[in-house]
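How a chain folds remains the central question behind the approach discussed here. This step matters because it turns folding into a mapping between discrete strings. The sequence in question and its structure tokens are set out directly beneath this paragraph.
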Amino acid sequence: MGSSVFNLSVSGFAPPQPRSPTISSDHAVFSGGAKFLTLNATASELKTEHPEPPFPMPASFSGLGLQLLYPDNWTIADDEPASDDGDASGVTFELPGGGFFSIERGGDAATDDAVVDAFAETIRADYGEAEREEIEADDSPIADRICEFRFYYLDLIIVSRIVLATIGNDRFMIQMQAESRDFDVNEPVFSAILKQIGG
């Protein structure tokens, strides 16, 4: 699994460009457009309503060689950069509570370890200490590696899970991030989407 690769080149942070009242696009960019978003909000701006599962999933997405259903109260961010061939390199679904689910198609130069370590370093630079946990990927139909980070933002615990996966001939980084209670509520939806991707 450590031999899997991702084309990684951390380029720092872009100026904030608001995407919604609860998240912004401060991000570290991995070549091919892969990125992860960081929070840029006050505690009062983060929504605390927690919808009850099960979630209806009537909206559909087709792109990146993938087809999947997702909840219709999620929105798709429209600022994903295109790759050299003009195709989108990723998609980010924004959750109503301020979190997101991101799928990024990557290249082939950096190892999984390099991707996870760069991710961890960026979180530490922005938020200080972060708890890091490797999660067994045996139960996942697509994951080569799963790593979860927990860190504080104001008085909230944020959970950010990355899944490095090979789907067909492509490498992907899939990221799920939300405040811990929203993450727990949305975890069944995250799992259902991952199962669809692994299809």
